[in-house]
Known about the structure:
The structure is a single chain. The protein is mostly helical and about 230 residues long. It is built from 4 helices and 2 strands. A hairpin with a 2-residue loop joins strand 1 (about 1-5) and strand 2 (about 5). Helix 1 (about 10-40) packs antiparallel against helix 4 (about 180-234) and helix 2 (about 45-105) runs antiparallel to helix 3 (about 120-175). The longest helix has about 60 residues, at about 45-105.
Amino acid sequence: MEWLGVDRRRLGTGMLVFGVVGLVLAGVVAAGLLAGGIAARKLDDRLVASQNLIAASLTRLTLTTDSLATSVDDASTTLGTSRDGVVHARDVLTELASATDELASALDVSIVGNRPFDATVARLHDVSARVRAFEDDATKLAANLDTNAGDVSQMAAAIRQMRSQVADLAGAVVSFDQTGDLVGLIVGGIVLGALLTAWIAVAAGAMAWAGWRLRRIASAADTGPASEATSRGA
């Protein structure tokens, strides 16, 4: 038998299946909301504990960064002192090379056609050449130390800037007091979801019941004429 141009049995079957599927989905959503509600218990305390832990870690990182910046500054000072020492050594080597050359020139004399200090003069010139080589090395080393001292100073400034940023972040974490509001929003969302799920479950249940009743009516309507025909035949 048809109703509004649609077979009642098929319409009832479709409504029943749709309602049952809706009930199953509502049950799954309800189970998820229940699990979320259980997980949301004491969420505020856990969030506050995590917030305090993060703030403490950031504070320790701030202190460590400050110590690191101080150590890098000390290293920069050490490099600057070493550079000054190398510069002084270079100056001494320059004077030593000049004195050696002057001594070699003073000993380069001829006495009655003989040059008794030739071997000494040669050694002095060799020493002077080596000293000048050391002088060049000392000059390059002083330049490298000066560059490294500048780089280390810049590194210390960058570390101190990072330390300031970490301190600001730690302060922001400590001053963040919206945890309770967030938990309230989560709980409110769970309640609204539960209400929506309940509404869907009621609608799905009504749909399933209507489909079941429609199938019963269609079955009764189909069996009614058959019974009447059987009775007349008898």
